Each structure stands twice: as C-alpha cells, then as structure tokens.
C-alpha cells in the first residue's frame, strides 16, 4: 500500500509537470527556440553551474555545523556534500524525497540517525523559507508596480476558482488540530501505559531525535560560520541565475533588479511540489519576464536555458556523487568484513 501511494503521488506530480510544460510551450514556435540556441555563450552557463556547486558546498558545510552539537563532530564536508547532491538527484525523480535520501546517505557514511538528520534538514528548510519570504518582501518593495498585482493575482484567482473547497479545508484543519490535541493528551496522561507498547517507544525515540535536529540551531558552536554560509548559499543562488542573463543577447541588457525579481519568482516555481520545478519554473519565470516587456518566446527560452543548466549540473554532479558514495560504502563494508575476520581469528 505504501509503495502504491508513492507511485500515485509520483504520477500526480509528473502529470502536473507535463501539463504545465504543455501550457507553457503550446504557443511556442520551436524553430525560433532553436535559432536562439545558436547564440548561446556556454562559458556563462558553465560559470552558473560552478556557482551552483559552490552554494551546495556551503550548504554541506552549514549542515555539518548543525549536526556537530548533536554529537557528530567528525563529519567531513566532502561526504556531506555527496549526500546533499545525491538528495538533489533524488528530487528530480520523486519530489521532496531528496531530503530523506540525503539523510539516509549520511546514515550509511557517518552513522547519523535518519531522524536526527531529518530534524536538522527541517530546521534548514525553515531557514530557507524565511530567506525566500524575505527575498519576496524585498523584491515586492523594489518592484512593487510590476510584481505586487501579479503575486496577489496568483492567489486571488485560485481562491475565486476553488472557493467551494474552503469549508472542506476548514473541516480538515479542525480535524488536524483535534488529532494534535488528542495526541498531546494521551502522551501526557497515558504515557506510562503507552510506553508498554514497542511501537510507541520507537515513535517516541524518533520524535526526540527529530526535535533534537530541529533545535540544533540553538546550540551551534560556530554561529559566525553558520551565518556566513547561509549568506553564501543565497548570494550564489542569485548570482548563478543572474549570470545566465549574459549567456544570450536577448537578456544581456537586463538589470540587477530584474534579475532579483526573476530569481525570487523562480524560487517560488522551484518550491512547487513537482519534479525539480519542471513546468512551474518555466511558467512563472516567463510570466515574470513578460512583465518587463519580454515576448513569450524569449521568456520561455530563457527559463528553459536556466532550468536546463541547473538540471544538467544536478544530473552530472549528483550522479557522480551517487557513484562515489556507492564505491565508498562498498569499501567500508569490505573493511568492516575484514576487521570481523581478523577479530574472529
């Protein structure tokens, strides 16, 4: 049943991606896209890939800082980087599965409990969400006349079209909080009885490790490194998207402010629950560039170049990271077997 649910979620996500891609490209002349591709300056694309890799190294470093207070002080940035890239690689196949995958990889390489890793990743993602929302506020302030109506329109249109489901959402929300309060009551009042159950003990241990991961930010040993690595991550995110402007004559004249608007709106597209933001990213970036007078074909072309560049980087570096990790795990397993034989003899 669990595998069936995963397959259904995957098919739904894939269907949404394909539907969005069709919607974005249905009015595009592909011969025009091909003609624009001949003018690409690939050195800028390679620079964008390199900047993305720097951001992922900074993320691996920051993740290490979060795990150190939890007792994992001997993590190497290299092994953590491999786990991060394998996670991104997994996200291209199953949306959001990469977060669990990278925690599983670090469990195999450094014995970091998956629940602890997931807790730290949740804390990390909450920080990323705060940074994204701060970027949205900044770009709306700078480009209010262009973006405010567009962003509000996205949500108001959805509300107008789906207002019939509001009562259902209220019921579901009420049911969720009822379950939460019931769970808290049982845990506080019936804890002794519940602890006689092995399943409850496993769930309780998992929640404790998850909470430890979430609270890891409070006990950081190197707060300066954590802050600076966060800045590096987001500066690299912006820069790797902005330098793509110089890869083609149709966007090389665009300003930093337009680059910031495109970066933030693209971030919202990548946050969509579809494989690698496919479709959602193309649509929202092309629509954003249209606000600045770019025609549909040019906007879709830029979005495609940007998204394809980063997807190729993840496929290449993520695939290599997976291969290196598998080799490392195999050697580690062989070493452990050798030690067992020696100790036995």
UniProtKB/TrEMBL annotation:
Membrane as UniProt keyword: yes
Keyword annotations from UniProtKB, A to Z: Cell membrane, Membrane, Transmembrane, Transmembrane helix
InterPro entries in alphabetical order: L-PG_synthase/AglD (IPR022791)
Localization, UniProt: Cell membrane
Ligase found in the keyword field: no
Membrane topology, from the record: Multi-pass membrane protein
PANTHER family tied to this protein: UPF0104 MEMBRANE PROTEIN MJ1595
Protein name: Membrane protein
Species in which this protein is naturally found: Persicobacter psychrovividus
Organism ancestry: Bacteria, Pseudomonadati, Bacteroidota, Cytophagia, Cytophagales
């Amino acid at each position: 049943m669990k595998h069936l649910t995963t397959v259904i979620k995957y098919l739904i996500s894939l269907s949404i991606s394909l539907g969005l891609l069709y919607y974005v490209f249905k009015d595009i002349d592909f011969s025009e896209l091909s003609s624009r591709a001949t003018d690409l300056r690939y050195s800028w694309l390679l620079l964008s890939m390199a900047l993305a890799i720097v951001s992922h190294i900074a993320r691996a470093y920051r993740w290490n800082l979060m795990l150190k207070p939890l007792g994992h002080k001997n993590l190497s940035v290299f092994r953590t980087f491999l786990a991060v890239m394998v996670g991104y690689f997994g996200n291209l196949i199953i949306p959001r599965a990469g977060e669990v995958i990278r925690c599983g990889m670090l469990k195999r390489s450094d014995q970091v409990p998956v629940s602890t890793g997931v807790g730290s990743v949740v804390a990390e993602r909450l920080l990323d969400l705060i940074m994204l929302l701060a970027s949205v506020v900044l770009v709306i302030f700078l480009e209010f006349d262009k973006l405010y109506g567009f962003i509000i329109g996205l949500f108001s249109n959805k509300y107008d079209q789906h207002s019939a489901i509001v009562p259902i959402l209220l019921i579901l929300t009420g049911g969720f909080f009822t379950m939460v309060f019931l769970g808290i009551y049982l845990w506080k009042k019936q804890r002794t009885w519940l602890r006689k159950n092995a399943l409850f003990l496993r769930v309780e241990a998992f929640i404790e490790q998850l909470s430890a991961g979430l609270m890891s930010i409070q006990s950081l040993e190197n707060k300066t490194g954590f802050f600076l690595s966060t800045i590096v991550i987001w500066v690299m995110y912006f820069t790797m998207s902005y330098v793509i402007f110089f890869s083609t004559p149709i966007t090389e004249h665009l300003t930093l402010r337009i680059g910031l608007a495109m970066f933030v709106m693209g971030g919202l597209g990548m946050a969509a629950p579809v494989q690698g933001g496919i479709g959602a990213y193309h649509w929202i970036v092309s629509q954003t560039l249209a606000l600045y007078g770019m025609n549909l074909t040019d906007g879709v072309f830029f979005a495609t170049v940007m998204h394809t560049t980063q997807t190729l980087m993840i496929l290449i570096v993520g695939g290599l990271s997976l291969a290196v990790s598998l080799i490392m795990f195999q050697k580690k397993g062989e070493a452990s077997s050798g030690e067992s034989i020696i100790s036995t003899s």
